[in-house]
Design a protein that fits this description.
The complex is a heterodimer of chains A (561) and B (255).
Chain A lengths: L9 H25 L14 H12 L17 H11 L4 H22 L4 H12 L7 H4 L3 H25 L4 H15 L8 H20 L8 H29 L11 H10 L14 H10 L4 H6 L8 H6 L10 H11 L6 H20 L21 H16 L17 H11 L6 H5 L15 H31 L8 H27 L8 H26 L1
Chain B lengths: L1 H20 L11 E6 L14 H10 L10 E4 L4 E4 L2 E9 L2 E11 L4 E11 L7 E6 L9 H14 L2 H17 L7 H15 L3 H4 L14 H33 L1
Antiparallel strand pairs in B: 1-7, 2-3, 3-4, 4-5, 5-6, 6-7
Helix pairs in contact in B: 1-3, 2-5
The chains are: A mainly alpha (561), B alpha+beta (255).
């Protein structure tokens, strides 16, 4: 005979809730003290940090993303839009990133409790999220896309959990669909690989339909207009956002192209160049020096461009970072070609750039047809199709990514930089856009000058370093335990149907696997990625692990009983 | 020191600017471009190297700070001159703490080539207080938009940042240390720079090393392929088969 469970009196439950929120506030306050001395890391990186800031600066000045050059459209616009938006409402950039992260944390904390996870476990997961060393690292303070992306992905996951739990219990989920739609639309145009989020959306919609079917016994729910409307909401929001950005770009640059490396003529041009046969057979070299020599003699329109290209060598980043010394690796050459074309005055505007690369492509194709060049088609996109002979490289890159996902080893900030490697003018742009207070114009202009005031350092700054290593090891172990339990939980799904938490965790992990597989493939040709590519994967997986393990054991216990 | 790196950059930038503006005249104009660059005081130890812009360029390259990522550096006149693409920088003399150079740009006009030359002065008098003044006197400088002048200034500051300067100081200090007591000879220092350049020189092609990412024959990978097929095809297929059998058995039992 099972014992009758007595509910605690109302006052006791209220006290428990009060204590829960007190702990949440205490944790958030501790986190804020821990990062109180951190400020934006100012850096010159024309394809990253300074690009985003310059574009936001131009946006706020009413000049689009700035004067067109070879770099203005090499990255998705999301972060520049965020920077400009935050500046418009007077919110410092780093604070905005931390606010999104903490708010997403509280949102998912509520989602866990909605999904039946005990408050203690939910709080532990919240702790893991708040004190993640990634958020205490130099990368987190840079003006790059990943820190913002991590917070938004956590919010996406949280909204999926709320929706799933809502469907399961028959509650209204409209507000969560709205949050999901906004977060999804923004995320899709944050990083170029975030277009994979369409896969997450597909998986999520499938899970929602499956849940509806399980609840109602058939797919009748899909015929309800409200369900169709909410399912379409993220798609419609994203399409509207896409149209707005393209319209903005068309007004300023003449063509609705968001990203020149994946749209328009440039990727086709690169694919055509890659098709030219060369003695150099290296997965990381799509344009060899021999190919350039061949093009020099057969396609006159490319001569001014080729003459501007830098020679490869042992002192290049290509050699030092990717080990490709006698050529330029793919991580650089596509950028050099665009830069060279612009410097040579061949691509002064976006329409002219498109026309130039189109004509050059047609010239190459003609040369291939009339025998001037020997060509073998190798796909139409910037990244070539996979070949079986690159399997070993694929396994190596996948292993490297897996290590990054398990142990990202962020560069934890011990002391804030006093002088940045940027000219004063650029630093001031950073200061104006990000509203960082940590930029001493006088010191920056004269390295001998000492700061008038002592640097403020949080009294808990040393704790950041203490947290990092134990956290990383514990998180790695947690993830290693989480993965087999996830497989086992899905294996017994026919005995104990998946709960909303288990369903969404499975969907998210499947998305991570798909992303991992695709990024591994891209890395085969573009070279190893930076560990920050795995920040969102690592953070979200660690966050979901503990509640999922708890829920799985609870389900198993109930099933056995 | 780093000021010289910035200087070289300015010369290169200049080429582009002059060409883009179309200022091909040899006529002189009164205006000048002045750039004040912040420097680390420790650089005062190596200001003599400013008389050898070519060797200084090599020292930068030895540290991965090539004056030009897009062109090969050429040293001329025993290190007194440096050539990058169509720009040349030549040391012409020193008066007190002021170094003078001649910067020149070859302009291809289609039917003929023209040479545009102008003086550049580097004043190192205030290195110990953290400043170096670079003055370039190109023709028609007054016609240049202020935005272009700002860009030159920004470019100069970028290549002459604190990290670059610190790296160069540490590098040169290391070379001086390795010279075992002969630290006062600039010729020994330049020799050490050249030896270091030789030791670091040669790309993958020159050294015969294989680049990362070279194709590997498929026949060398069959063990790996077999392992992958077993784990990614056979094992999942077996698990699915096993699962289906359990489900069928359960249905039969229920029936």
């Amino acid at each position: 005979m099972s014992p009758v469970r007595e509910f605690p009196p109302w006052g006791y439950r209220k006290m428990q809730a009060g204590l829960f929120w007190f702990v949440v506030i205490l944790l958030v306050a501790t986190k804020l003290v821990l990062v109180s001395d951190l400020s934006v890391t100012i850096g010159y990186s024309p394809h990253d940090d300074s690009l985003y800031v310059e574009r936001a600066f131009s946006m706020l000045s009413g000049q689009g993303f700035g004067v067109y050059d070879s770099r203005v459209l090499v990255k998705y616009p999301g972060l520049s839009i965020w920077l400009a938006g935050a500046r418009m409402i007077g919110l410092p950039f780093l604070l905005s990133v931390n606010l999104v992260y903490v708010a997403a944390g509280v949102y998912i904390l509520l989602a866990f409790t909605q999904c039946g996870v005990s408050r203690g476990i939910a709080l532990l997961a919240f702790c893991l999220l708040l004190f993640n060393p990634i958020t205490l690292s130099v990368e987190w303070t840079r003006v790059i896309r990943e820190p913002l992306g991590v917070g938004i992905f956590v919010a996406l996951t949280a909204s999926m959990l709320h929706i799933s739990a809502g469907i399961s219990s028959g509650r209204r989920t409209g507000i969560h669909w709205a949050i999901f739609s906004l977060a999804f639309a923004f995320s899709v145009y944050l990083r170029e690989d975030d277009r994979l989020l369409w896969g997450l959306l597909t998986g999520f919609v499938a899970a929602v339909l499956w849940q509806s079917k399980r609840r109602d016994g058939d797919y009748s729910a899909i015929r309800k207009a409200s369900l169709i409307a909410v399912l379409l909401a993220p798609i419609v929001t994203t399409l509207l956002y896409d149209a707005a950005i393209r319209n903005f770009l068309e007004r300023h640059y003449g063509l609705p192209i968001l990203h020149e490396y994946s749209e328009g003529e440039y990727p086709r041009f690169m694919a055509t160049v890659r098709a030219i046969d060369s003695l150099k057979d290296n997965r990381m070299v799509m344009v060899s020096q021999q190919t350039l020599q061949q093009l020099r003699t057969t396609v006159p329109s490319l001569v001014p461009l080729i003459d501007q290209l830098p020679p490869p060598g042992s002192a290049t980043h290509s050699c030092r970072l990717h080990g490709v010394c006698s050529e330029w690796a793919n991580g650089w050459m596509p950028f050099w070609i665009r830069d060279a074309a612009f410097r040579a005055g061949l691509t002064p505007t976006l329409p002219e750039a498109q026309a130039y690369f189109r004509n050059a492509r047609l010239d190459i194709e003609r040369a291939c047809q009339n025998g001037g060049l020997k060509c073998t088609p190798r796909g139409n996109a910037l990244v070539p199709p996979m070949e079986l002979r690159w399997v070993r490289a694929y396994v190596a890159e996948a292993w490297r990514l897996a290590k990054m996902a398990l142990l990202p080893f962020p560069n934890v900030v011990v002391e804030q930089q006093a002088i940045y490697d940027v000219p004063v003018e650029l630093g001031r742009k950073f200061q104006w856009v990000t509203m960082t207070s940590h930029f001493d114009t006088e010191r920056q202009a004269n390295f001998v000058r000492r700061s008038v005031l002592p640097e403020y350092v949080s009294p808990l700054a040393a704790v950041r370093l203490l947290i990092a290593t134990p956290y990383q090891i514990a998180a790695c172990i947690l993830l290693l335990v989480f993965m087999p339990i996830l497989a086992w939980r899905n294996w017994i799904a026919h005995l104990k149907p998946l709960t909303p938490l288990a369903t969404i965790t499975t969907v998210v992990v499947l998305y991570f696997v798909a992303r991992f597989v695709i990024l591994g493939y891209v890395a085969v040709f573009m070279g190893a990625f930076d560990p920050r590519m795995m920040f969102s994967t690592h953070t979200t997986a660690v966050l979901l692990a503990l509640p999922f393990i708890y829920e799985s054991f609870k389900s198993n216990k109930e099933n056995n009983a | 020191m780093r000021k010289l790196g910035g200087w070289i950059r300015i010369a290169i930038q200049w080429v582009i600017i002059v060409a883009s503006v179309g200022a091909i005249s040899h006529a002189s104009a009164a205006d000048e471009i002045r750039i004040e660059i912040p420097v680390l005081p420790a650089l005062v130890r190596y200001t003599d190297l400013l008389a050898f812009p070519g060797f200084f360029g090599v020292a930068l390259e030895n540290n991965g700070l090539s004056p030009s990522m897009s062109s090969k550096l050429q040293i001329k006149e025993q290190g007194r001159a440096l050539e990058i693409r169509n720009a040349t920088l030549k040391y012409t003399g020193k008066k007190g703490e002021v170094y003078t150079y001649e910067a020149a740009v070859k302009l291809n006009l289609g039917v003929s080539e023209s040479r545009l030359a102008f003086p550049v002065i580097v004043d190192t008098a205030r290195v110990s207080s953290g400043k170096v003044l670079v003055t370039a006197m190109p023709p028609l400088a007054s016609l240049f938009p202020s935005e272009l002048k700002d860009r030159i200034s920004i470019k100069a500051s970028l290549v002459a940042n604190a990290t670059t300067q610190q790296k160069m100081i540490e590098y040169l200090d290391g070379l001086v240390k390795s010279m075992a007591g002969n630290s006062n000879g600039i010729s020994l220092l330049t020799e050490a720079i050249l030896i270091d350049a030789y030791n670091k020189g040669g790309g993958g092609a020159a050294t015969g090393q294989r680049d990362v990412g070279e194709a590997v024959p498929l026949s060398d990978q069959w063990m790996l392929l077999l392992t992958l097929v077993i784990w990614l095809v056979f094992v999942p297929a077996y698990l699915i088969y096993h699962r289906l059998r359990i489900r069928q058995a359960a249905r039969r039992t229920a029936a």
